[in-house]
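Dear colleague,

Thank you for sharing your sequence with our group. We've completed the structure prediction you requested, and as agreed, I am returning the results in plain text so they can be pasted directly into your records. Please verify that the sequence below matches your submission; if there's any discrepancy, let me know and we will rerun it promptly.
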Amino acid sequence: MADSNTISGYVARFGDITNVGGDFRERLAPGCFTRTLREMPDVVMILDHDSGRVLGRVSAGSLQLREDSVGLHFTLYPDPTTPEGQTAIGTVARQDVKGCSFSFSARSESWDDGAGDQLPLRTIEDLDLWECTLTAFPQYETTSAKLKRSSKQD
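Please find the predicted structure tokens below.
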């Protein structure tokens, strides 16, 4: 019997607001990933924004990304024979790592100056997605990553 380990969850959720360095607040508009998922040739999933620790890649079929009404959902098939895969499986299983983050460039955004003592609010309307990452310290705390184990007959 071969074990199949799948990690899935949300890299980002629409409408949730985060504080970016105490300088401004930020949220993601529904649909902000639509164009980039259609046009970007490839996206990788890595550990803690470390490009030397690749876990999966869209073009290899080891990472699937889809936008739904909640946000950007991912399904990752980490390789348990690699150190990175073992780390991802172990830390996500224990929920030591239970969040995600991502690197992007904003293509379209809008700003609300904030009222009273509120920080300005940036709304990302369109972006170029460069990578997704599993991390213990996500910028958006409502992201998620969970391990599902199943056994399959060879």
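Summary note from our side: The longest strand covers residues 121-135.

Kind regards,
the structure core
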